[in-house]
Amino acid sequence: MDDSKSKLKEMSLIDHITELRKRLLWSFLYIIIIFIICFYFADQLFSFLATPLVNLMDTDNGQGFIYTALQEAFFTELKIAFFFALFFSFPFNISLTLGNISCDLSTSGSKAPSKCPISLS
Fold first, then answer.
1. Domain range holding 24?
2. Where would you tag: which of 9, 50, 76, 116 has the fewest CB atoms within 10 A of its CB?
3. Whole-angstrom Cα distance, residue 115 to residue 118?
């Protein structure tokens, strides 16, 4: 039991901030990579999202999707790729977040509330 406590070194504030910065950069990198992949498949993702609405439309009488401005198709694909990237990167981001929290809790132990400048109790 004492060996496990001695292996955990106490981290300074700079070490904690450096660890948080590293995890945030990895999280941002995951979002960017998945965004690029989702942007490549944005047409298929849009058709997946629009299928229930298209089934309700009367396409024989001219009902359907239209773009009223030149840039709307591009921005629609950007938005779809961004939100799908957030959705697909969520497991990676939550594991990084929980890893940072567990790292902080394991090094500070029960002293965490005393170090917190704003306490709820």
1. 17-49+72-103
2. 9
3. 9
How far is the C-alpha of 81 from the C-alpha of 83, rounded, in Å?
A: 6
Contact by Cβ (8 Å): 9, 107:
yes
Cα distances (angstroms) measured from residue 76 to each of 27, 64, 85, 86: 24, 16, 14, 15
Record the pTM: 0.70
Evaluate whether 14 touches 64 at the Cβ level (below 8 Å): no
Q: Are 16 and 74 in contact (CB under 8 A)?
A: no
Q: Is the pLDDT of residue 114 over 80?
A: no
Residue 24 lies in a domain: yes
Mean pLDDT (the chain) is: 80
Least confident among 10-14, 43-47, 54-58, 73-77: 10-14
57 has a pLDDT exceeding 80: yes
Asked if the structure places residue 56 within a domain, the reply is no
Position 121 in a domain: no
Query: Which residue, among 19, 25, 31, 30, has the nearest Cα to 101 in the 3D structure?
Result: 19
Report if residue 9 sits inside a domain: no
